[in-house]
Design brief:
Length: 109
């Protein structure tokens, strides 16, 4: 469950940025290829935030699909699963979205 380590890092970051003010809301952008499970992330965030300035903060997740650009068929395609292969069968792809794991915004009191 790598989500706990990620959640602890996020809580540390937002609490540092909040400079002692209560954190009310955190927005994360999470790509499908990060293998972060949304429900597990919410649970771990709540656990990591306990006793911190982020205690009770809402966690909003902006989930991004995995998208690749195929150099063979020259098209951008959404991946149906986590294997970076173009539906045309080519493995000559560049991932354009799906690897994000970013704190997009936070709201403080």
């Amino acid at each position: 469950m790598h989500e706990l380590a990620i959640a602890e890092n996020i809580v540390d970051t937002v609490c540092t940025r909040a400079a002692g003010r209560p954190v009310r809301r955190v927005i994360l952008r999470i790509g499908a290829l990060t293998a972060v499970l949304p429900d597990t992330m919410r649970f771990c965030f709540e656990l990591a935030a306990t006793g911190t300035a982020a205690h009770g903060a809402a966690l909003d997740l902006d989930l991004r699909p995995a998208v690749v650009f195929c150099r063979v068929c020259r098209s951008e395609r959404r991946l149906p699963d986590l294997i970076p292969l173009c539906p045309c069968g080519s493995a000559d792809v560049t991932v354009t979205t799906g690897r994000e794991l970013d704190i997009v915004a936070m709201e403080v009191a």
